């Protein structure tokens, strides 16, 4: 039988049928390579387009490299561009083939057409092949002196590319000096901006190894140069203006008159149509006046109008970026924007991310004079079809109420929310009413009257149900049906999946029992039984604690569970003032949009290396580069950042997170089966906490989930090697491989904090305790050190990461060890050594 005929498909230029198609292209290109016939350039264009289309969809056409280079011998700039694109793509993966392009690229660098010269130079620098850097020096030198500004612009960027390929070649060819000359003398502002950008990057990288580069970098923020740029700022492009303004923020004026001169010079930049230029100018104004309180407040008034204009006139993306910066300013000076609250009203056609930010702004600017109007507007949003925005609007109303502005009217609005027949509105309102009652107990009568009409069956969200249960327990004496509602909830214990709700239910039943014992006794017994048998450890521990303390003394239990309470004056802020100040310092950056400092979201490549010391005496923070070995650098792990003390600790090791109960619970047995053991533990509390054989230790009683620790003989003291040595590469490898054995927070004495003004003092102090520093970094108030130590006469290493925050006087310590069984002993030694730092 004959094979089935293959389906015929029309050939597409972007889908070759096989190798024959590429072979045909190769044959056609070779025929056209030396042809001078009329219209040959048009034929070449069609073939080049096919090659580029194949390359774009991932088909390997590298076999055409030679033919493409031969066909590039033409004056047609379109063919040149396509050929350069092809060459640049395959030069990275085929360095050997890239050598074939050098001759024709160097030849094109001397073409009469400046466009071809620039394109050829750009392509030559884009090859990025290390063994071809010697061919770049000549064309780059000629390009920097070219009469055409486009060629000079390309050459400046090419110098920076050369630096990243081979820094030594770039510096040896004296290109930085040539860029400096161009920057100060070229008439084209785009070239000046490119030179400034390239030199900032080059000199910043070279400053760690060259004193001259460090001096040149400092010269960029000198008064003559800053004024030179500011006087020409109107000539720069928008991108270049942002670059210049960012440099100006680093300049420190000598006196107030100089500050006013700079601000007057940049006054018209606030009216610029480009939002980036406006924000960069705002940053300059804010940074210059930080030390001048009165002027700083006037700056807020001055920058308000331009920023509000940008919010209303730009795209949603621009509005969000500007609003994020406005939000930061509002948090620092809310009264300045209090009269402009209508600018933050939500429009129906705005994206949800813009609306959400505007709601935060409305909450921040609310005061006595505008609360009514703002709350009225927010209440309209509660009926929004966008449910997340409706939720946010209700939360915003509650936040305003907690700021003590016109509480009477706001409480009435929230109670109206409770009567709406929308589950999510009721849920959010319940949570807010709970917080309001914690701050304003005098409103309990009005609130409870409405809350009592809400059926717990209609509340499904865990936070809302927990809030309702809290109110049932806290105000059970005022709610007639509270014991019976709680009893029905206890009966449905197994159907409640949220541990938060079960915890609140336990506490609420206890409170209700103390206020209305006869009606709650049966519900309390059922709740304790269900709680002790609960699979969630927190619920189990709390129920067990309540049971024991009730058997011990009911009066004591009431003082513990339901003591007299004071109204909450201030609710905790979710973000520390230190973090907010750090974000303000990074104004006009992604930090403002993410609402977190840059170190929390940048990757390790942009955090800078940790420098290893040649010896302890040379190890220093912020000193000149000759004090460190530049070739010995440790690459930080993603989690090994220089963090503030507020940052979460790394997951603790297995030696710290164990959870063991002294008495296992059998779910098939009644909770009261262990009554004898409980009575024994409670009747003799002194021995219960210390006896090695106690069934219930004091740790378990407090809900820590750990058994009592028996008295054992103290282990022998750990002795360290005074002449320990560890190669930096070995340290880095071990740090990546070893798990964290211990993680703890230590407090520093005021003397130790004062001594840290000279960080080397800590390094010498720790060395005197046989704990050596191998790397350090940071600046006040955050310092980071890597220490190591070795056990005496044994090849056992201890690695330590110590992050110190001088503001909070805390040290976050992580310890890794070859032998984890001795890590606790080493931790004791390290803590003892650190505690002695700063003492005479």
From TrEMBL:
Residues 1-17 have a biased composition (Low complexity). Keywords: Membrane, Protein transport, Transport. The keyword Membrane applies. It is found in: Endomembrane system. InterPro entries: AP_beta (IPR026739), AP_complex_bsu_1_2_4 (IPR016342), ARM-like (IPR011989), ARM-type_fold (IPR016024), B-adaptin_app_sub_C (IPR015151), Clathrin/coatomer_adapt-like_N (IPR002553), Coatomer/calthrin_app_sub_C (IPR009028), TBP_dom_sf (IPR012295). Residues 1-25 are annotated as: Disordered. Pfam families: Adaptin_N (PF01602), B2-adapt-app_C (PF09066). The keyword Lipid metabolism does not apply. SMART domains: B2-adapt-app_C. Its main location: membrane. It comes from the Eukaryota. Residues 718-835 form the Beta-adaptin appendage C-terminal subdomain domain. Belongs to the adaptor complexes large subunit family. Subunit of clathrin-associated adaptor protein complex that plays a role in protein sorting in the late-Golgi/trans-Golgi network (TGN) and/or endosomes. The AP complexes mediate both the recruitment of clathrin to membranes and the recognition of sorting signals within the cytosolic tails of transmembrane cargo molecules. Adaptor protein complexes are heterotetramers composed of two large adaptins (beta-type subunit and alpha-type or delta-type or epsilon-type or gamma-type subunit), a medium adaptin (mu-type subunit) and a small adaptin (sigma-type subunit). This is Beta-adaptin-like protein.
